[in-house]
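Troubleshooting: if your tokenizer reports a length mismatch, compare your output against this known-good record of 508 residues.
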Amino acid sequence: MFCRIKSGGVWGIEGFEVDVEVDISPGLPQFNIVGLPDKAINEAKDRVRSALKNLGFQMPARRITVNLSPSHVKKQGTLYDLPIAIGIIKLSTDMEFAQDFVLLGELSLDGKLKPVKGVLPIVLSLKELGYRRFILPKGNAREGAVVQEVEVYGFEELSEVIEFLRGETGKEPERVELDSLLEEALNFEEDLRDVYGQHQAKRALEISAAGMHHMALIGPPGAGKSMLAKRLITIMPPVDFEEAIEITRIYSVSGLLDEKRPLVVKRPFRSPHYSASDVSLIGGGSVPQPGEISLAHRGVLFLDEFPEFSRKAIEALRQPLEDGKASVSRVGGRITFPAEFLLVVAMNPCPCGNYGNPYKACVCTPVQIKNYYNRISGPILDRIDIKVWVNPVEKSELIQMKEGESSESVRERVMRAVMVQRDRFKNSRTKYNSRMTNEEVKRFCPLTEEARRLLNSAMDRLNLTGRGYIKVLKLARTIADLEGEEKIGSAHIAEAIQLRMEEGVSHL
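Known-good structure output:
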């Protein structure tokens, strides 16, 4: 007796088709699972046996063999409990049901269905292969229903699945109102108006959001660096449906999705502790999982106390910052996770934190300050476009508690600049000014004669590297876009140089 149940698996953040082949044959009672299963899948034997027993079903006293095909691909997780159980029941009771159902789900010992990781990428991939009907745990149903033009049925217990497949009960497919989900994209608890003063830092945030320029915030403790960074996502362009799917795939395989919010519609803001390892930042592990840089995909990765991160962790950021992806090599192959994020780092200006503080004296020696900055990789700092000094807010501004410009107002300007870039790069893989190639910089960064003279003078005076020269042009292009200017003027170049070589942090 043999049957084949359709299921799926995940490799990285990509789904793939899996055939759960169940065979029951004469012989001593055995239950074997083959096809490169991990430990969690091998433990399915005990979960399935107990679940069927507690439903009043008698396991056949015969040899049961389950093969997960393709057998050369490593399988992981607990999502094959349901198809294995249904396969055994089908062969033992001659139950007939349509073969185009895809089944996923973990079983508890009492037969309840529990949510599993990676449902969204599996549904997306199998939809491309022509499958349209999916049976999932109730906790994953809304996640699967985010995919358009498929039927997703969510169940809480194995007995309900059996009755549905036998045709004894009917059920409507799960529905998700995408429009209502996407409306939440601009609902934030934080707002830029909550930050008093800090006009220069707010301007830097606006430029960073408009062109996706990496940024460093340097200043004494309590100046508001973290407060500013957390409000960056409130002025960034809202995600579109395609970007929301990209982000949600990553959170799905990481097991971080909220059952009530099956689609991530806000740009992520990730803030790992400085004790985080390079693996937790980049991704990996025995079962490769996305790291913080991938969880920040299309959003912000905020590294507070940047010099306190290990040198290895900081150096690991170099390639993802250039390529927009993180690659992890394992015995089973190479996994690539997307990592298009906006990096924002915050740091004190010295070990005691008070260098440049107008209200407190610094007690650090020049050698201590130099050693403090030597913890940071030069190539990483060179990839940071904007360096801005954040001074403590003046007492008069705190006392007045005068609200500043709202995030909504700033976001409108950012969106206008983003729309200019979308039109500019409509025939290119580039999306933002910060990601321009050298050829695109030549094409899209025309300078006025005065701006050209100023930039040439700055190169000689500030000893700009080739990378620094290109970074200044990209920054100036974004500033000009915010002003609605086609040509880059001297004022745009001057502001870009100031942001790149901010007084007080020029030694960075």
